[in-house]
């Protein structure tokens, strides 16, 4: 799997997490994947200077619950960014399409209404092997990548706020 074009390649070590309060909302369903995504996100935040007290990990039952939880996190006013992590693996029924559509639309709606970055870190894969390939160690981990995107976007929002 390539990280070509990924913000991880260009921004690693250049984006800081000091003074960035981040909520990482992770689904428990498919925990053999989401636990690794969460570990990747936490590693990225810590590697870039986040203090433990500035990272809050929130677990929810599944991907379906991510948008509503992200919305509550945003409304709390306590965070600079939200990283939403989950994994939906295609099965034999249309359930996959319904969940994926609503999670992506829901998180998109939250992000558009929010004054802080809300980052989509939900895997939508055809099978377990695809999910595992995206939840490995290091910077190829999509949780790591989502956390890096959140840190970069915090800086973008801060610059835009300063010039507005």
Based on the structure given, which CATH architecture is correct?
3-Layer(aba) Sandwich
How many individual β-strands?
Answer: 4
| Main sheet attributes: strand count, strand direction, barrel closure | 4 strands, parallel
The CATH topology is Rossmann fold
Tell me the number of helical segments per DSSP (H or I, 4 or more residues long): 6
The CATH superfamily bears the name Lumazine/riboflavin synthase
Number of structurally distinct domains: 1
CATH class equals: Alpha Beta
Strand content: 15-25%
Helix content: 40-55%
Per-chain topology:
Elements: H1 7-11, E1 22-27, H2 31-47, E2 55-60, H3 66-76, E3 81-89, H4 95-113, E4 118-125, H5 128-134, H6 142-163
Parallel strand pairs: 1-2, 1-3, 3-4
Helix pairs in contact: 2-6, 3-4
Question: Can you describe this structure?
Answer:
The chain has six helices and four strands. It is of the alpha/beta class and about 160 residues long. It has a single domain, classed as Lumazine/riboflavin synthase (Rossmann fold), CATH 3.40.50.960.
Give me a quick take on this structure.
The chain has 164 residues and is an alpha/beta fold.
Keywords:
6 helices, four-stranded parallel sheet, 164 residues, alpha/beta, globular, single chain, Rossmann fold
């Amino acid at each position: 799997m390539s990280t070509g074009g990924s913000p991880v390649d260009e921004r690693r070590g250049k984006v800081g997490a000091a003074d960035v309060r981040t909520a990482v909302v992770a689904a428990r369903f498919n925990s053999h994947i989401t636990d690794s995504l969460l570990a990747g996100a936490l590693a990225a935040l810590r590697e870039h200077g986040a203090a433990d007290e500035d990272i809050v990990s929130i677990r929810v039952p599944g991907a379906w619950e991510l948008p509503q939880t992200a919305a509550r996190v945003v409304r709390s006013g306590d965070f600079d960014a939200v990283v939403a992590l989950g994994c939906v693996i295609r099965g034999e029924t249309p359930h996959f399409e319904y969940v994926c559509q609503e999670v992506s639309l829901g998180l998109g709606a939250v992000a558009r209404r929010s004054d802080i970055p809300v980052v989509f870190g939900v895997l939508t894969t055809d099978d377990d092997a695809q999910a595992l390939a995206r939840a490995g160690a290091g910077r190829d981990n999509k949780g790591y990548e989502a956390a890096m995107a959140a840190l970069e976007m915090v800086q973008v929002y801060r610059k835009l706020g300063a010039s507005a």
